[in-house]
Amino acid sequence: MGPSPTTSCHFIVFSCCLLLAIFLICFSWTNPSISSTKTNTLNRIAISSPSPQHPLDPLSLEEISSVQSVLRSYPQFSFPNAFPSIHTLSLEEPPKSVVLAWKPGRTFPPRRASVIAFTSGKSHVMTVDINSRKVLLHEIVTSVSGYPMLTPEDLATAAFIPFSNSTFLDSLISRGIDPSDITCAPLPSGWFGPLEESRRLMKIQCYSHKDTINFYMKPVEGLTALVDIDRNETLHIWGIGRKIPINSDPDTDYRYEVQKEKGTPSSCKVNPILMIQPKGPSFEVGGKHLIKWAGWEMHVRPDARAGVIISQVKVTDPETGKYRQVMYKGMASELFVPYMDPTDAWYFKTYLDAGEYGFGIQAMPLDRLNDCPTGAYFMDGVFARADGQPYLRSDMVCVFERYDGDVAWRHAEGPTTGKHVREVRPKISLVIRMAASVGNYDYIIDWEFQTDGLIRIKVSASGMLMVKGTTYENMNQVPEEEDLYGTLITENVIGIVHDHYINFYLDMDVDGSNNSFVNVHLVNQETNEGVSPRKSYLKVKKQVAKTEKDAQIKLKLYDPSEFHVVNPSRINTIGNPSGYRIVPGGTAASLLDSHDPPQMRAAFTNNQIWVTPYNRREQWAAGLLTCQSKGDDTLAKWTEKDRPIENRDIVLWYTLGFHHVPCQEDYPIMPTVSASFDIKPVNFFKKNPILRAAPYSKDDFLTLRSQAFA
Ligand SMILES: *[C@@H]1O[C@H](CO)[C@@H](O)[C@H](O)[C@H]1NC(C)=O
Ligand SMILES: *[C@@H]1O[C@H](CO)[C@@H](O)[C@H](O)[C@H]1NC(C)=O
Ligand SMILES: *[C@@H]1O[C@H](CO)[C@@H](O)[C@H](O)[C@H]1NC(C)=O
């Protein structure tokens, strides 16, 4: 939801060097032997596979390079026409039927790249076949509004544009700000009508980094430049907020090296804790992307837009020892982060982070000690720059086992029954994690797999609030009728109220592709008079959704339902259909007017659950081209067709949300808040699938001392 800031003005030269340095680092990583050496030495499970091993493996550095060279020699893009900028260059998944039919050892389906390029105001959607070096498809998009995802190069260019405008510089100087003290953030401007169409626009706002790394807490309030990022023009400057001082708090820096020098020592002293696995991790990695653990198998790949894509999730049935399908594909499809301040410098802050910034592009390398525990396996992301050149984002995803002291199941008998029994199983799970730093906010996405067949999807937010400068230093100065649009969190700083919504695309394939969505409605049933001392009970009424509109769910506490995805042709031995259910969590709902432009663009938040028939073209809940889109290519539009969804290949979309009314503790950096929802087996297994799991015994840890402290 925020900027990818760039240091400006006097720092231009420095910043350019920095950018160059980053690219140089990227170049040095383009040698796969370097990266595999690194993997070998730092991971317990060492894997190196220069070429793809699975049809869904992401494009390798070599494959991206060869797509780049195909595009360079493509007649429509070569001299005298300009080479376009490349906004997406990623694996084009083979058709689902082909992937499902593929088995290791068989010939590989053709490797293809899906490309979105942009030139002369037009978006080009292309498919490039890597082996034949041919462009198989080339469409210029005219049917829907919007522009492709911003490239990191777009963001870097945009932030500098106002610095060649004297009005902008004068405005800074008249506020007493040295332009070399500021860092500017390029922000998507959203879409608010015809004046903002037919060119790529961003809004630039700035912060002071004087004496702190945490410039986000020191906004230069109100000063906003509207820029055309293709023509490098400043179109408009709002010089409002001149009287608002910059936050002068000397204690905003969150780095340990700074904080450890300050005041009284932290009372938060906890001895270091390590996760110790005397026999090593119990997951295996096939190739680089296929994870096997405790009966589970899933394919994991980093993606520039979605962050992480989990595919072909299968779980072993303890009765047969065979894999059963659960989900074909799951990913974060879109985010929506609207700020609740309608004034000039704030109304447009209604971010769609995946489609605008690229959730994967913004995912920085994970910290090997503090982001993921010991024993974690790290996966690199391989992405393309705007010129089509590949680069490597190291340690972007981590995979690890978790034991946090919880119980998987237990029972103990009290003395009255005379049965001396205490049976407990520790709860262990497998976590696949990435963290995207979308400007000020950090989002941690965990896919957690439990041994009992449950999948938990957790979203956590940390990082910095997006704050507003104010003249107020105390609430007693604020007139009662004045709406601050947020909370005064320190002198001269307001944390603006906002929401976060994260939509997950879940292509469920429970025991096969044809599934149905069942609303297991819980209703109050009155008893007949004289039949029971009870007046009422809860009764289950199952409704199978026939079409898309039957499956648009707004959650209601006093009208509850369970939501099952079942396979109507897999009826088990006692007559129930095999299923998995979505257990909602993080249930904030958008309260914006449905005709508010941001709400139209993010109309996927109109319901918490939607179900659609599988369609390759429908993957991004706010549309393929999200920047400045008008909401004409969203989940809400597609489902207007009200297509049949019963006993079909269906996709379930779940939106997890948070309302965020900021508080003082969110300053100057927020403690992490989390919410999650579950995908849980329902009549899928014959009985508790971990009935035969063994408890720990002391013998399991005999080797501990020698190994852990060697
Ligand atoms: C805009 O600025 C960028 C970076 O300085 C430059 O590469 C690009 O050519 C410029 N575009 C125009 C139209 O001047
Ligand atoms: C500076 O920005 C203003 C918009 O406030 C614009 O009218 C003017 O043309 C710009 N000047 C230059 C040199 O780009
Ligand atoms: C799934 O359902 C579709 C539509 O009813 C049908 O055409 C298809 O054959 C079914 N597939 C399987 C594997 O049963």
From TrEMBL:
InterPro entries: Cu_Am_Ox_Cu-bd, Cu_Am_ox_TPQ-bd, Cu_amine_oxidase, Cu_amine_oxidase_C, Cu_amine_oxidase_C_sf, Cu_amine_oxidase_N-reg, Cu_amine_oxidase_N2, Cu_amine_oxidase_N3. Its cofactor is Cu cation. Residues 275-690 form the Copper amine oxidase catalytic domain. Contains 1 topaquinone per subunit. It is an enzyme of class 1 (oxidoreductase). One of its GO terms (molecular function) is primary methylamine oxidase activity. Belongs to the copper/topaquinone oxidase family. This is Amine oxidase.
